[in-house]
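Entry 14. Structure prediction run on the chain below.
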Amino acid sequence: MVFSQLSSDPRYVPEACGSLEKEYDLTASRVLGAGMSGCVRMAVHRESGSTHAVKTLEKRYASRSQLDDFKREIEVQLSLEHPLIVTVERIFETRNEIHMVMEHLKGGEMFDHVISKGRFSEEAGANAMRQMLTAVAHLHEHDIAHLDVKLENFVFASDSCDRLVLIDFGFATKCNEGSLNKFCGSLQMMAPEVVKGSYNASADIWSLGVVAYMMLCGNSPWAHSDAETRRMISEGRPMYRADFFELSSEGQDFIRSLLTVDPAMRPSAKTMLEHKWLAASPNLSFCDSKAGVVSTNMSDGESTSAEGSRQHSTADEMDSGRSRSESTSSFSNEGC
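Output returned:
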């Protein structure tokens, strides 16, 4: 078996010692999503009846490089234990597949909440950012870079939206051996140094800055085309639109700090957790519609309610069958 070296971990189950199908029922399984490296389905534990998410990595046609990527993803996930990072409960390996059994997060992706509710209040956004920064700070304390920080990769654990969890470690890597150079992630979320080909874990902080901008402003700081977006990112020139200047001075400073162009000067996740904008915001549930949605009318007459969200271009693209990754990379670019 390719990952037999993990046999010392009690969560690892080789084919000779058990199977996914014996412990979990997948007959009525539904697809929960697709990560960078595999499909995610729901499974029901046969004894307890509890639901779980199962990510399947296909080994049969994988190249040596892809197998190395699978190994890296699994090792990273098994090394982490934090309430705001998705928990891996079991790993089943067969000749052709690896199944990662994880906690079932039932509250929906942050991406979908932003699309359905529109621009969010600073109080609700601050509560979400506090949890996002905490998760990323834990990674960085263990010399791990996520490298795919985006709205889709933060999922609420339940409908109460009290716990926001970081998922999908398909690009995650140890970064304690110098700079990284692999071009990976979603273009709109990439830091300037990622586009240029030499970076470290600080790139995750820039991505959180783009996430914060999208949540609080209801649009993207980049252009319509990939070529123009890449140029703007390379130059470190996000487009601060009118919505941005309606935020409090502390909220604006928070986003600008995350989007510091020089990675050497960019604050760490731990430092950003002490930012005055977060300190001044109460802990509100992001799913509280009264706390979350900004209802003020914009000067151009566009609504930011759930019924008339400024995210219409993204929603239209999703409805027309485009992938979620493509939708994120076209996240409402009015005013370009």
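The chain has two domains: 4-103, 108-328.
Filed with the rest of this week's runs.
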